[in-house]
Amino acid sequence: MSEPLFVIERIRKQFGPRTVLDVGGLALQTGQSYALTGDNGAGKSTLLRVMAGLEPAQIARALYRGQPVDLHAYPEWLRRDVIYVHQHPYLFRTSVRDNIGYGLKARGTQGTMLDHDAVAFKAADLSPDGPIDPDKKFGTVGAVALDAHGHVAAATSTGGMTNKHLGRVGDAPLIGAGCYANDATCAVSTTGTGEMFMRLLAAYDVSARMEYRGATLEQAAADVIMERLPRIKGRGGLIAIDAKGNVALPFNTEGMYRGFARVGETPVTAIYR
After folding, report:
1. Whether the Cβ atoms of residue 82 and residue 74 lie closer than 8 Å to each other
2. Exposed / middle / buried, residue 234 (Cβ in 10 Å: 0-12, 13-18, 19+)
């Protein structure tokens, strides 16, 4: 038999005083399929996460293609070879096999990728089935609102970016970068390369341009997304509403899932320009 592809010896994982994983070792051969069986809570998912470098654990030794590896540091070259697919893996309307292939190819791009960039990714023959299914896609969820009393509000939540570094914190939870609201101007929620939105305080900048320059919501939002962000190679978009009910939805990527609704009117939705 040939040398094993992946070898891990003595794997132990604890959550506080409780041991959730205690495996003497495993050796995976190239070209073979394996199945993990066991009761709920037996540690199957934990073991896979440890092997993918997503979960720290006590490991005596690990070898990949005969080369010693530190699964705590998880070198970049190994990340491009090993991918963990969650039990609900349908990023695209396609097969689990194609989703795994997509993940490996995305890692091979040597950089991050936004869900808005599916068109460009497909053009490079990396995306298996075109745009991400809007019912299943992972990414930013943002909302802005204006109530009957003239108050505005904004909210932003995100799943991050493909290939993001472990432990990365993006712009979504940072007031002023990924989310901002001011009754005197507007409410803003952003999506895209968070580091660039943080550098510009992009959401607040829209409000500031309205307050200090007298810009309209449309002008301020377009300046930030179409002018300032591209200068520092920032990609993404935003949704915004002002105190008068005007809406702005600019983006500098191939597409952005977006929509708005007004009382008594038919909701408007779009993906591309």
Report:
1. no
2. buried
Give the tens place of pLDDT for each residue, 131-155.
444 443 446 889 999 999 999 999 9
Q: Is 109 exposed, middle or buried (0-12, 13-18, 19+ CB in 10 A)?
A: middle
End-to-end CA distance of the chain: give it in Å, rounded: 56
Q: Is residue 109 among the annotated active site residues?
A: no
Measured between alpha carbons, how far is 176 from 156 in angstroms, rounded to an integer?
11
- Catalytic position from the list 46, 112, 140, 193: 140
User: Sorting pLDDT into bands at 50, 70 and 90, what band is 248?
Assistant: very high
Longest dimension (CA), the chain: 74
Question: Which of the 8 DSSP states describes residue 52?
Answer: T
What pLDDT sits at residue 90?
Answer: 47
Backbone angles phi, psi at 219, to 5 degrees: -65, -45
**What is the distance of C-alpha 192 from the center of its chain?**
9
The one-letter amino acid at 222:
A
Name all domains of the chain by residue range, CATH numbers in brackets: 1-84 (3.40.50.300), 141-270 (3.60.20.30)
Q: Within a 10 A sphere around the Cβ of 42, how many other Cβ atoms?
A: 13
Mean pLDDT lowest among 130-139, 215-224, 230-239: 130-139
